[in-house]
Amino acid sequence: MTDQDLGRIVDLLTRQVSHWQGPRWAAPAATGDGTRGDAVYHLVQRLADLAADVEGRVRQEVPRLDNDASLPDQLRVVAADLVAADPAPEILVVAATDVAAVRAVL
């Protein structure tokens, strides 16, 4: 697994959802509790946590913005932060698997 592989799966997800309006974000996710927006937000948080762990920083809560349409941008940023932290390949596998799992429930 490479950073390019992670970038590709993040790009697929962001292209899938970047045009969504409020009602699509508010719809229930296919599995689990919560909405599609919740699923993507939790993914953003998990990737941010992975980046913090790789960098040896304290994990911090990613702000949940008022408009879920901002989630694709947040996802791109935290994924880029994770790649910039130069994680081990197994961390990239975890991240890519998580992104793919969220894509599957949307």
Structural overview:
It comes from Asanoa hainanensis. The longest helix has 20 residues, at 36-55. α3 (36-55) packs parallel to α4 (71-84) and α3 (36-55) runs antiparallel to α5 (89-105). With 106 residues, the chain is mainly α. Helix content is 67%, strand content 0%. The chain has one domain (3-104). The model has no long low-confidence stretch (mean pLDDT 95). The chain has helices at residues 3-17, 22-26, 36-55, 71-84, 89-105.
Mind sketching the topology for me?
Layout (H helix, E strand, L loop, with lengths): L2 H15 L4 H5 L9 H20 L15 H14 L4 H17 L1
Protein name: Mycothiol maleylpyruvate isomerase N-terminal domain-containing protein
Helical content stands at 55-70%
Low-confidence stretches: none
Number of self-contained structural domains: 1
Major beta sheet summary:
none
Number of strands: 0
Radius of gyration: 13 Å
Terminal-residue CA separation: 24 Å
Output the structural class: mainly alpha
How much beta, percentage-wise?
A: under 5%
Order of helices and strands: HHHHH
Shape: globular
Q: What's the helix count?
A: 5
Mean pLDDT: 95
Features:
0% strand, globular, Mycothiol maleylpyruvate isomerase N-terminal domain-containing protein, 106 residues, 67% helix, mainly alpha
